[in-house]
Amino acid sequence: MTTYVLLLRGIKGGGNKKIAMSDLRELLTDIGHGDARTLLQSGNAVFTTRSRRNADKLAGEIEAAITGKLGMTVRCLLRTAAELRAVVERNPLVDRSTNHSRLMVTFLSEPPDPEKFADVKPADVAPDEFALGTCEVYAWMPDGQLSTKLDDKFWKGRLTGVTTARNWNTVTKLLAIAEEL
Q: pLDDT of 62-97, one tens digit each?
């Protein structure tokens, strides 16, 4: 049995891309997964599976189910509970953060390329900071997301594939749920 954390990209509490978390739990159960739990109204779920499929194939199946049953196209990223634990343990910015709602983890479908960040000096983004992880990027924005230099324009062309960000409070809550299962 494997426990996965499911991160849906672009799901909002309101607006065009809204999925009721009860529908997401039901969908995960209907396609054969167990213990489906959700967190917040923003596309976060934890579930267990006996499936031996790799995470990319499993994410594709969930995306297809969302399209087929809920009528919308949504990209998904998966992390096992162990992978999410590793993301939490290797965060190099957590000790600098004084407000965990301003400490972000951007989950990536493919590893970041350090070469694409070689031209960035800490002063270029200060007071913000970022650090590349294995398949995630950590960002500390002490003045908040509205004032950050680490905006979409900064990341464009530097990150490829599917990306979705969560604040540190959400990441640690998802880990706690995953480790309960």
A: 999 999 999 999 999 999 999 999 999 999 999 999
Does the pTM surpass 0.85? The reply is yes
Confidence of residue 156 (pLDDT cuts 50, 70, 90): very high
Nearest CA to 102 out of 150, 39, 162, 46 is that of 150
